[in-house]
Amino acid sequence: MSKLGNLGARLHRGEISYDFVGKRKIWYGVSILITITAIVGLAVRGLNMGIEFQGGAVFTTPTKMSTSVAQAEGYARDASGHEAVVQKLGNGSLRIQIAGIDTDQSDEIKQTLAKDLNLDSEKLAADLVGPSWGEQVANKAWEGLAIFMVLVVIYLAIAFEWRMAVAALVALIHDITITTGIYALVGFEVTPGTVIGLLTILGYSLYDTVVVFDSLKEQTKDITKQTRFTYSDIANMSINGTLVRSINTTVVALLPVAGLLFIGGGFLGAGTLNDISLSLFVGLAAGAYSSIFIATPLVADLKEREPQMKALRKRVLAKRAQAAAEEEMAEARSGAGPEDAAPAVVGPRDQSAARRDRRRPSGKRR
Fold first, then answer.
1. How far apart are CA 70 and CA 60, in angstroms?
2. Parallel, antiparallel, or unpaired: how do β-strands 189-190 and 48-49 relate?
3. CATH label of the domain that carries residue 65
4. Distance between CA atoms of 173 and 169, rounded to whole angstroms?
5. Domain that includes residue 79, residue range
6. Of the residues 114, 129, 144, which one is the last residue of a structural domain?
7. pLDDT tens for residues 191-238?
8. Are the C-beta atoms of 109 and 57 separated by less than 8 Å?
9. pLDDT beyond 70 at 362
10. Are both 217 and 233 inside the same structural domain?
């Protein structure tokens, strides 16, 4: 931990740094590849929308059922003619979700399921979700996401500038695409909890991005009055100065979410936690990545196109070239050969010693 703190202090002071902005084309390529993979997953497999969005019925059995999840899925598929999602809850009961059925069908399916599971039909609880209500929930979720994005762009444009707002918006779209693509590839169910988790991770992503943007804005107030750094140089210093802080906050946030996803959903079998924990886990990681490798390098790209920044870059590069030339000349002078060296000057002590030697060849008094 002390080494990590020392590394963070050295990064903040600018003693060491990694050229994130200079290698931005690599990060752009990686991000494009991941995004394309996510889009292909969405196009090929699609999202496994929960019953809240499609409508259908949820049947819950009493506790301590001896029927396995696979058997219950087979019973539900035979009774309804639809694919069913079966989860075993912590108390031993089964939660059977069947999407795309109406109220009349649910009564018949309930009777058939109760018979297959050797249960009294009265003990098999049934909750119905209408398709129109599910469509309304889906529309409200998209509306909420769109409003959130618009408000974010307006705020960042006012607090910082429009280029930073555009870069933050691109990073947010990047995070959303990756998260939804992972959901499609993994096949986890999308529920209202997923939407809540998605909106939550967008807030975390913005937090990391705004921290870097605030540092960048502070360090570039009088950037055109100096000739030491370009805008990209200062952007890179801003990333390095906040790098350890971003990593620490992300790791601390990921640890409890990983507990929900891998321990709660995996080992303990609490499958209802998967919908929100996966979106949080993937989104937090993608948000930290985008704030470092996407948002700030993209701002640097946009700013470097301004005439003032182009002129500044020319002055900085010209000064660096001049300094490099002077350094090469100094190295050439210091590396001159023996024949080019100036003759040695005999000092006063050497002269006195020479005179004494001429007077006294033996070195003794006469």
1. 16
2. parallel
3. 3.30.70.3400
4. 6
5. 56-129
6. 129
7. 777 877 887 777 777 888 888 898 898 888 888 888 889 999 999 988
8. yes
9. no
10. yes
